[in-house]
Specification:
The complex is a heterodimer. Chain A is an all-alpha fold. Chain A contains 10 helices and no strands. The longest helix of chain A has 33 residues. Chain A is globular and about 65 Å long. By secondary structure, chain B is α/β, with parallel strands linked by helices. Helices cover 43% and strands 8% of the residues of chain B. The chains are: A mainly alpha, B alpha/beta. Chains A and B meet through helix 1, helix 5 and helix 9 of A and helix 14 and helix 17 of B.
């Protein structure tokens, strides 16, 4: 298989397979999680559970008091790489062109140089949180294979995309193909790893907030 | 073949040159310098030509003179040009070669002893010319091939009743080097596109014991062939090749890297259709299917028709014609980052996902219900037992 054939495969058949797995996996997991249901709580709610749920959705995006100084790498690194990922994925012109072809919606992108800078910052932030995870004994103890694996899955598309844009390491054709393949791996594994928080994070926050509100601890 | 040769001779400019060729016939052993002298070519002009060739091949500035001196002393190599499953587009391209021109290429640099379209001889005389050139220059001649070789059935393409593969093997046997001219010869090209009905293969798949240089393109840039022959004459070796057998000097960078529209790509300014404001302003053609980012060739720098223009400059995206398998590489008008048919199985996937989720939910709920029904209530009496 030549480089162009490889690229054609990852753009065509490979992407089809990955998207099939992604759509299938996301719906499967959403139905599975929300289908579990909860036992009906017969007690009278002590405060407004719904409002507490919505407040928690936003409040948990902010660090709890004191935590920013206790664990700055986790919080600052976390913010930077999440925002950076969103910028790189959704505001790079070729990515927008791809998404437009899929869903038919157009939005303006950022200049390539800006996206390039954000990519480097995002990778630096991801490297920092990885080193932090290694260096802190408690974090290392709590880390499982899934944590290392999902970090790699998230980092590879950034790295290969950046290398492709700069024509480093491999010929552009091959690197672009490797980049798309790495994104496909991410798509396939996302529903079945902790990366699924992309879909469940706000739902679970709302549920926690609502449950606390019901018990009389509104936040 | 005869018809082609005649139509070629009808062109007034060529007629004069061909006449001078017959008048000034020289032994094939003559050096390039002798040929120049015979034709009264100014040495200065020759130096100028090699200045451009040296710069194209990224040789240092001082190399032009050395290159010219070496080529002047070199014997004009005998070149046998074989045409197999091809469209003559490569030859058409060569006849529009500007630096050097076709005439000077044939008269000064090489001795083109066999070429279906360009030679005046036909029939048995033509084949005799090939055999004579092979015999007189055994081990020293260059074979240029355009077109792929059908391996499905030898009868698909023959010359004088002989299958292409046999002509190739016989001709290449005593050759010094082989130049696969054009994408068909280099990688199979159009004849090898799926489903490849003739079983077409590239020249490099059949010639294993001789150096093969691929000069892909549909057609290739003629100057590249001149450059390769000049290098061969000056240094006695072939230029440095990349992993796909192409001279790095010409195929080292992508069209996209050297494209004058590249700044628009970087700014995210794209033509959306061929007649919108972006197209009129000369913005990037990426979204209209330009394959420049994955195509290694020198079109963006050397250009075509005497350096006048190249496809992107004329408003059409690159189709990637110098890459292996470019015919099967998706639509010419589909952008590179856009997949062929991404969501063709999307609905089925969604249905399967929902079905799996519902099935798992059903299973989980049954498990819960079973646990509930098996639950035994503990009473005070039980605890006091």
């Amino acid at each position: 298989m030549g480089q162009l054939q490889f690229l054609t495969w990852v753009r065509g058949t490979g992407l089809n397979l990955a998207l099939v797995m992604f759509v299938l996996g996301v719906l499967w997991r959403l139905f599975e999680i929300y289908g579990l249901g909860r036992k009906k709580d017969l007690s009278a709610p002590r405060s407004t559970p719904g409002a507490s749920g919505w407040a928690t959705v936003f409040r948990r995006s902010l660090p709890p008091p004191g935590m920013l100084t206790t664990s700055p790498v986790s919080y600052i690194g976390g913010y930077v790489f999440h925002v950076g990922l969103a910028v790189v994925v959704f505001l790079f012109a070729p990515h927008i062109a791809l998404l437009t072809s899929l869903i038919g919606v157009v939005w303006p992108g950022l200049p390539s140089q800006v996206v390039d800078f954000v990519t480097v910052v995002t990778m630096a932030a991801m490297a920092a949180v990885l080193i932090d995870r290694f260096a802190r004994p408690v974090k290392r103890f709590l880390s499982t294979f899934g944590d290392w694996f999902t970090w790699t899955l998230t980092f590879l598309p950034l790295l290969t995309g950046w290398l492709a844009a700069h024509h480093l390491l491999l010929p552009y054709t091959l690197m672009l193909a490797v980049h798309i393949l790495s994104v496909e791996l991410l798509l396939v594994f996302l529903p079945f790893t902790k990366l699924f928080h992309a879909f469940t994070v706000f739902g679970s926050r709302w549920f926690n907030g609502a449950m606390n509100g019901h018990k009389g601890v509104p936040v | 073949m005869v018809r082609c040769a005649k139509s070629f001779l009808r062109r007034p400019k060529m007629e004069i040159k061909m006449k001078s060729f017959f008048e000034n016939q020289m032994p094939p052993t003559a050096t390039v310098g002798a040929a120049l002298e015979q034709r009264g070519i100014d040495r200065r002009e020759f130096l100028k030509l090699f200045g451009s060739i040296a710069s194209m091949m990224a040789l240092p500035a001082g190399a032009a003179e050395q290159l010219a001196e070496a080529v002047m002393k070199a014997r004009r190599p005998s070149v046998i040009w074989l045409s197999f499953q091809e469209c003559t587009g490569c030859t058409e391209s060569l006849t529009r070669s500007h630096s050097p021109s076709l005439e000077s290429l044939i008269f000064d640099l090489i001795s083109l002893d066999y070429h279906h379209t360009l030679q005046a001889a036909s029939g048995e005389a033509a084949e005799a010319a090939r055999e004579a050139a092979m015999k007189d220059n055994a081990g020293k001649y260059i074979v240029v091939v355009d077109g792929s070789v059908p391996m499905g059935n030898p009868g698909y393409s023959t010359i004088a009743g002989v299958a292409n593969v046999d002509v190739l093997r016989e001709t290449v046997k005593d050759a010094a080097a082989v130049i696969a001219m054009g994408t068909c010869a280099a990688y199979g090209g159009l004849p090898a596109a799926q489903p490849n009905p003739t079983g077409a293969v590239a020249i490099s798949e059949l010639v294993k014991d001789k150096p093969v240089v691929n000069i892909p393109g549909c057609p290739p840039i003629p100057t590249v062939m001149t450059g390769v022959i000049a290098h061969f004459l000056a240094f006695g070796s072939l230029p440095e090749l990349d992993a796909l057998g192409r001279p790095k000097a010409f195929y080292g960078e992508t069209i996209h890297d050297r494209c004058y529209r590249r700044p628009f790509y970087d700014q995210g300014k794209f033509a959306e259709t061929f007649d919108d404001e972006g197209a009129r302003r000369g913005w990037c053609l990426f979204k209209l299917g330009c394959k420049g980012p994955v195509t290694y060739n020198a079109c963006a720098t050397m250009k075509w028709n005497g350096g006048v223009s190249f496809p992107i400059q004329s408003g059409h995206g690159c189709i990637g014609c110098s890459e292996p398998g470019f015919w099967d590489g998706g639509g010419f008008y589909e952008a590179l980052s856009m997949p062929a048919r991404p969501l063709q199985a999307g609905l089925a996937a969604a249905a399967a996902g929902v079905a799996a989720g519902v099935a798992v939910t059903f299973f989980n709920r049954r498990k819960k219900a079973a646990a509930k029904s098996e639950h035994e209530t503990t009473t005070l009496d039980d605890l006091e037992k």
